[in-house]
Design goal:
Blueprint (H helix, E strand, L loop, with lengths): L7 E3 L7 E2 L11 E4 L1 H12 L4 H8 L3 H21 L2 E4 L4 E3 L19
Parallel strand pairs: 1-5, 3-4
Antiparallel strand pairs: 2-4
Length: 115
């Protein structure tokens, strides 16, 4: 029996979800689908520069799963760039979570009224 897949945590919802090569009509392009969770993996590892273990914890997955995900995403991105394909960011198995604020406890930085 196959273990059910965990939903990956994603903290960044991309505003731009489609990229295409310039000068080629959309009707002539092949598309590569990059899942939102793969996009988040590349963002955490390559843009934020975090270690794989830390990225995996943030996404609520194991480090080997994170590694496979980031390799898959990089391969899709490279294929699109080299072969002139469009990239569509959509789908995947994820939950959108709000980023946590640091340094703000119960009183949200305000002084306690209790002395």
């Amino acid at each position: 029996m196959v273990r059910p897949r965990l939903c990956r945590r994603v903290r960044f919802n991309p505003d731009v979800t489609y990229f295409k090569p310039r000068g080629i009509p959309l009707t002539e392009l092949e598309e590569t689908i990059l899942n939102v969770d793969e996009f988040e993996a590349v963002r955490l590892k390559d843009l934020e520069g975090l270690e794989q273990e830390e990225c995996a914890k943030k996404m609520n997955i194991s480090q080997p799963t994170f590694h496979r995900m980031v390799i898959s995403a990089r391969k899709k991105i490279a294929d699109a760039i080299v072969n002139g394909k469009a990239i569509r960011i959509e789908g995947g198995n994820f939950n959108m979570v709000k980023p946590q604020r640091r340094g703000l406890g119960l009183w949200r930085g305000r002084r306690s009224a209790i002395k």
